[in-house]
Specification:
Layout: H1 3-48, H2 50-63, H3 68-77
Length: about 80
């Protein structure tokens, strides 16, 4: 095996790693681009008003742990 063949053989895994990293970077850029577009779409939905109302409704379902009796009592106090 000549010297140039040895060098080429050693360089092969490095080239493969570099190609893999390049591919990963491109895929991450694409994912970030899609994610950003989805965030802007969601912000537009909030600006239109309907999504904010839906989120409030969902948060009330999840975050309001009081029962009906406590809710009526709190409303009558305040």
């Amino acid at each position: 095996m000549t010297e140039s063949e040895k060098i080429a053989q050693r360089a092969k895994p490095i080239q493969k790693k570099e190609a893999d990293l390049k591919h990963r970077r491109e895929m991450n850029r694409e994912k970030a681009k899609v994610r950003t577009e989805e965030e802007w779409q969601e912000r537009g939905d909030y600006a239109n008003g309907w999504k904010a109302a839906e989120k409030d409704r969902q948060s009330n379902l999840v975050d309001d742990l009081r029962g009906d009796y406590e809710r009526r009592t709190v409303k009558s106090w305040g």
